[in-house]
Structure formats: C-alpha cells, structure tokens
Task: structure prediction
Amino acid sequence: MTSPSPFARPGAPLTVPQGDVLGTYDSYPEAQKVVDRLAKADFPVAKLAIVGNNLTSVEIITRKRSWNRAAFSGVLSGAWLGIFMGLLLSLLSPTFTWQLFAAAVFIGAALGLFLQLISYAISRRNRDFESVSQVIAANYQIVIEPGMLARAQDALARNPQL
Result:
C-alpha cells in the first residue's frame, strides 16, 4: 500500500509510525472498527495509524497447472474479449450480423488460446502450480500521535455503541 503515514511530513519517506498505542487487536477488521468508531465520534483520525506487527507471508497452493488448464483458460478469456469486440463491431456497423459477432468470438478465443499456451510454455518449468499469496500480521496496533491518547480513549468511552 502506498498511503502516506499520518505522522510523516509530505514528501518524507515512509517510516513506521511512532507514538502511543491506543490498542492491540488480533485482526485488521477489529482495528478498523475502532478507527471507524473514532471517526463517527468526530475524532481527528488523521492522527492515527494501524500498524501490523510480525508479518508473515502465506502462499496457498490452489492447483497444479497443466496444458489443458492453460488451453481452457485461454479460450475462455479470449472468448470474453471476442464477445466484447463482437458487440463493439455490431454497434458500429449499420446492421447486426451473427456471422461478424461469431467471427469476433472465434478469433478472440483462438488468440486467447495461443497467447495462454505460449505463456504457459515459457513459465511452466519455473512454476508449475497456481497459488494465492497474502501477508498476514500477528496483531494490529492503533498508534496515535503522542498526547492524543487520553482524548481518543475518552471518545471511545463516551460512544461505546458507535
């Protein structure tokens, strides 16, 4: 994420925010709810930062890659492109013809198949599986500028149900 630190000067390099810890939470949504409560209580949330600690990269393998999967996904993605192009060509032509639409879908599917198979052939020796990656933190702290801690705690205590 490239959002600037709330404690940094504009143009200054990003650093881990320093300040008082308002709270520590097990999940990001929990920390987000606290910040949302403070925002609803008209607290200046620009003085806050959510900091994830002890980051761990998790990669979950979803399936093995194969020539069949590459061909199937190439045909599908190319066909979608062909449908889009066929509709666009149909709107631009004075009369709608199914032959033009079908040709655009077929050409898109063939192009998608060709490009996906080339891509798979190039990358298959390095990485023969598909996965989903994510960075997870052990906990999330809400860090607040020094001197603002009591005001934030008071805002949370006054509005527990926001």
In short: The mean pLDDT is 87.
